[in-house]
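pinned: reference chain
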Amino acid sequence: MAIRSTADGHDGADFAIRVRGLVNRFGSQTVHDDLDLDVRRGEILGVVGGSGTGKSVLMRSILGLRTPNAGQIEVLGVDARSEDPADRLRIERNTGVLFQDGALFSSLTVGENVQVPLKEHHPELNERWHYELALLKVKLAGLPADAINKLPSQLSGGMRKRAGLARALALDPPLLFLDEPTAGLDPIGAAAFDHLIKTLQQALGLTVFLITHDLDTLYAICDRVAVLADQKVIANAPLAEIEQMDHPWIQEYFHGPRARAARGERQALEDTP
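pinned: its structure tokens
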């Protein structure tokens, strides 16, 4: 069933993702209860919440990797809960996913990892084209060309994330999912990865669903932030609006010393001529 609500004043076509009434339970534990979420086309949406609020569960539900207990989900205008193989294929071909630490196949080279979705969805292309397209994505993700022949074990943590990003971009998807992309990176590496994501988003017109706990990332590149708490999305707005909310978790998270430092760094960058 199509989601018709446009209560926020935006036409449904403006949204890459629409979730209504989502319920996710694990036994007697309810993670999401009547959760609603909109992700606008062309934005970077940061998704935050405390431990156990179901950020990754939400992402997996949207991607069809988990069947929710109830609710409606649309991805790029397609019913994500549809059992029609054509609908599932359309979503799969138009979404890219970077899981934590890249989730690469350890026995395959970087190039072979990137070629996995290419070979699955474009078997008509010959091996040379698969290789050349993989090389293009490797370079696009900021890796040197020679990384294409390396195994994941030969890469640093930051390079593995970039290799995972190259695979996520393999099919030129308009919608990108990133799960804690800067986790485990040093501040310089994390800032460089943030810059890469913002550059790709602007150059390719991507919509980005970004799960993170990194305040620097939220302040540096996110257009809006969705806050998960109390089994729902309690806020979905620009950071300036989020900061004004009096919810206890928001106050603790966005008004502590780390948040003040991240906010100050963003302001300093904006003030730089």
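why pinned: The first helix runs from residue 55 to 63. The chain has a mean pLDDT of 91.
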